[in-house]
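job 3f2a | input accepted
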Amino acid sequence: MKVFKFGGASVNSVEAIKNMAHIVADHLDEPLVVVVSAMGKTTNLLERIIPGIPKSDEERRALLKQSEDYHFGIANELLDDGDETFTKLRGLFAELERVSTSNPGNYNFDYDQTVSYGELISTTLISGYLNSIGISNEWVDVRQVIRTDENYREGNVDFETTRRQAQETINSQFTIHNSQLIITQGFIAGTDKGTTTTLGREGSDYSASILSYCLDADSMTIWKDVPGFLNADPKFFANTVKINKIPFNEAIELAYYGASVIHPKTVKPIQNKGICLNIKSFIDPSAEGSIIGPYSSIEPLTPLYIFTNNQLLISIQPKDFSFIAEDNLQTIFAVLAELNIRVNLMQNSALSFSLCMNYNEILLNKIRERLESQFRLVYNTGLQLITIRYYNQQIIDEIVGDRTVLLQQRSRTTTQLLVDSK
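job 3f2a | predicted structure (422 res):
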């Protein structure tokens, strides 16, 4: 059995979905589980219709219509008029409208119930299209397979329950329906109470890794718009280097630092089973790509660059100008944990604690609500976090230039610099 993952860029248009179909059709020599993300930038749009976020009903309706027009525009070109997929899509959009108009409650809970429709809609459309062109497949609701706790926006996976449900649900689909192909969703999961959770932003890679682990897959492949694992984002570097082989531990480090090619939690489950992860190009499917596996070092060895934009730097100081001590840090970390905030970089001195995170106005306001009674908060927005692995001073000087460095950390192999983005 193999597991494939297709991200939003690989299914964002009629042409892209047809290309995906060709790739899938070429790999049906053994059972295949295909994990699919929301199409294009759908998740970004759905984040704007979470209950309490739109400034008006008019704005919410306009955003919903924008998403409907986008998906039905693609469906109209891929499917015949009477295809049952249209009925399913209309039902999903009706559910989405009900969810988005519910009374605002817990932001993290509301987030998961809303944005999860991106994956449900994309997989419904794609499954219907594949069946219509003779690529028989079974659609599986991954919320009935991957089980998490109620830690909304970043659910913690119950691997024992998930493994049992994956074996019962997915393997039975292959057996009962005599199908070689399962289409299911990335990013989303379910709880014992029947509510929807998500696995963290860009979590579809992790979904595929969870299923690979639970189904004892022979291999996992992520299909990207790049030729493999590159040493830098081609948006920032003209001359990138493709890394052919990446050790499991190296990939975990790079994902933790924000390498966009894989989600931070992706590697550990497949490493535990010794399942290799292929990163291949959906633009050139026959190209070799990159492999994450049980290697001793990256090949070739070259500096690796990660650029993370739209960063927020918060500096926290006690109002009485006492030292930042363990009790202060305990209070701060409790708030970060409660709000499910991933810290990209942190540093403390005698009088202040600084943290860097992805900018989110709602979460920033919640941090201020919880901490400003006890601490003085100063923050900067619009920053860029630069991570360089296998660095030297010349490389740092060339990358930073004359920009102001607000925060910096170094280890033997990695340096991180938070700079203004001008």
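job 3f2a | The mean pLDDT is 94.
job 3f2a | closed
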